[in-house]
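Mods, move this if it's the wrong board.
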Amino acid sequence: MIIAIDGPAASGKGTLARNLARHFGLPHLDTGLLYRATARALIDAGRALSGKEAAIAAARGLALAGFDEKLLRGREMAEAASIVAAIPEVRAALADTQRAFARRPGGAVLDGRDIGTVICPEACPKIFVSASVDVRVTRRALELQAQGEKADYAAVLEEILRRDERDKNRTTAPLLPAKDAIVLDTTTLDAEAAFKSALAIVMGSAARNAAGASSGRG
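Not the wrong board. Structure tokens:
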């Protein structure tokens, strides 16, 4: 079973993906960390985030283990990752790594922005997580505060809108729901309620697949 969770920044997709992975005992990959780690490598090397060749080399040199998540979760890295992720060749360099993770025995849970549309179009179910901009800004501000960073609402709003614009309008793998994705609006849901709603989606999908398989055998 491959569960694809997509959605914009601060929609709640990461928390939801981790909770689903824990529930089903599946490995989880936050694919955004790959782009953050690529950007971090460029910054550490003193290279421009928009430098295509250096960014491709950094992406190809990544491993799926050993990420310092605390170093990668800050505001600076979110913006930097968004810039790097807009480079088509970087996305291509990281695609095989993500697909190999998804094809582990038993399946996996992946969250990002193009899992259901590009990385794992065969995933079932596909959930696209959304939330109002106001709620997403509030969530992101609280997250930054928990990390010890300053979180001015206006500044966070500007960052969220800028990332949305970049994600939705990039030429390669723009952020949008897969045609067969189920949209889960978490605007009024806390983490537990969002998990219960997503779990119902997953179980419903599994039941339909089982019924289809049974009908096929008949």
